[in-house]
Write a structure and sequence with these properties.
Helices cover 76% and strands 0% of the residues. The protein has 90 residues and is mostly helical.
């Protein structure tokens, strides 16, 4: 099966400023997602490749909040995501 959207995302990841270990980590996450669900992200990454580093930092922040069972940190991350999405749509 073609993984066209994943390949677009992977290219943005590979071209990013992230260290190789972070690139591998992020790519492995998206490789597990069915390609049809990656279409919007692939389009966004193609237009805004600079978002890769922000996306990875967000993932790291979420992992840290989960590991610490820090509900307040998790809620803060989600609110920041929502605000960012609203800025992008507006």
């Amino acid at each position: 099966m073609l993984k066209q959207n994943f390949e677009i995302i992977k290219q943005a990841i590979d071209n990013s400023v992230l260290p190789d270990v972070a690139k591998k980590d992020l790519a492995e996450i998206f490789d597990k997602v069915e390609d049809k669900y990656l279409a919007a992200l692939a389009e966004a990454m193609a237009r805004h490749p600079e978002w890769v580093a922000k996306l990875y930092q967000n993932l790291q922040d979420k992992r840290a909040a989960l590991a610490a069972s820090d509900t307040a940190a998790w809620e803060k991350i989600i609110k920041e995501e929502e605000a960012e999405l609203e800025r992008m749509e507006g």
